[in-house]
Amino acid sequence: MNRKEFAAAVKRLNTSPWHILINDSADGAMQRGCYLENGIWKVFENDAKGRTKILYKNRSEEKAFAWLYQLLTKSETSKKWYEFWKR
């Protein structure tokens, strides 16, 4: 999945509380994204305090965005499970 396919697919997901960034790194809280740096695609996550953590690195754009999409869908599934028990 390349960045255009990822952008289209992520619109269908509930990504809250995360703000999703494509091909851009940023400072700030609760952000996930993927960007290119020196020929390497990096998937990152900024926590609630704005600390950046690199989660995955690869030279392939497709593999990096597929990994990020899988991370987002996994967290969406666990969030739904938690909300079920919260009721």
Give structural notes.
With 87 residues, the protein is α+β, with helices and mostly antiparallel strands. Helix content is 39%, strand content 29%. It is built from two helices and four strands, in the order H-E-E-E-E-H. It has helices at residues 3-10, 61-86, and strands at residues 19-22, 31-37, 40-46, 52-58. The protein has a four-stranded mixed beta sheet, covered by helices on one side. Strand 2 (31-37) and strand 3 (40-46) form a beta hairpin. The model has no long low-confidence stretch (mean pLDDT 86).
Topology:
Elements: H1 3-10, E1 19-22, E2 31-37, E3 40-46, E4 52-58, H2 61-86
Helix pairs in contact: 1-2
Radius of gyration equals 13 Å
Output the helix-strand order: HEEEEH
Cα separation of the termini: 36 Å
How does the helix and strand content classify structurally? Answer: alpha+beta
Identify the strand order in the major beta sheet.
1-2-3-4
What does the overall shape look like? globular
Compose a concise summary of this entry.
The chain is 39% helix and 29% strand. The protein is α+β, with helices and mostly antiparallel strands and 87 residues long. β3 (40-46) and β4 form a beta hairpin.
Features:
87 residues; alpha+beta; four-stranded mixed sheet; 39% helix; globular
